[in-house]
Design goal:
The relative contact order is 0.09. This protein starts with a helix and ends with a strand. The chain has 9 helices and 10 strands. The chain has 228 residues and is an alpha/beta fold. 39% of the residues lie in helices and 15% in strands. It is elongated. The strands form 3 sheets. Strands 6-7-8-9-10 form a 5-stranded parallel sheet, with no helix packed on it. The chain has a 3-stranded parallel sheet with strand order 1-3-5. The chain has a two-stranded parallel ribbon with strand order 2-4. The longest helix is centred in the middle third of the chain and has 13 residues. The N terminus is likely disordered. Helix 3 runs parallel beside helix 4. Helix 8 links the parallel strand 7 and strand 8. It has 2 domains: 97 residues, no CATH class; 105 residues, Ribonuclease Inhibitor (Leucine-rich repeat, LRR (right-handed beta-alpha superhelix)).
Amino acid sequence: MLLHCCSVSVGLYSVLTVCCSCFYHKLDFSCRSALDLTTNTDSEPLHLTADDCRVMSRVIQRAHSDTKTRLILQDCEIHTAGMDQLFPVLHSVQLCCDKPLLLQFLTHVRPEKAQCLSRALGEELDLSQTQLDLQVCRGLELILEYSEGLTELDLSQCCLTDHSLDLLLPNLHKAQNIDFSGNSITDAGAEKIHRIVTRNSNIKTVRLFNNRIESRELFRTDPRFEIW
């Protein structure tokens, strides 16, 4: 409700900016934060309109702080027009959202916006148990290109094939620990991963079990691979 008031009252932007600072630079739109655990916890997702996102973006822009605003969008739904309003301020936020919304961001990210989204996602990226189609993989490719200090990349049970894997290989070295378990990667894809890992000391662990890999001799001498 306060967001909608701000859409018609410019003076309230300064109020929200102060509020953002008072709440330790956190804007939390998650339904989980307000749940009464003594009652039924099932709740409808919060639908954020393009106008809501426009106001959110202006509040973050006016925060004027060296500290990133933590933007929590768990249990939220945002359409493309709303995401377009948020992309310009992603460089100023630490983004926390559910996997469906994260997939939307990856689907709609463009090269000129990828660096901002990459910084907003931080050091850990968990897409496990989601279906990564080629469009999402192209977005993830851009995120990896601009990532710095990515410690965990979880792509387990994502329906990855050798074809979709090819999009990620050029920047795979940006992550330290990578989980490819439970996908459809064959010997051909595994050999490509092995070449990348052997050339990059930054990669600490690669999990490959439960794929379609039959020839495993290549990985026996490198303790970084978990394939059995």
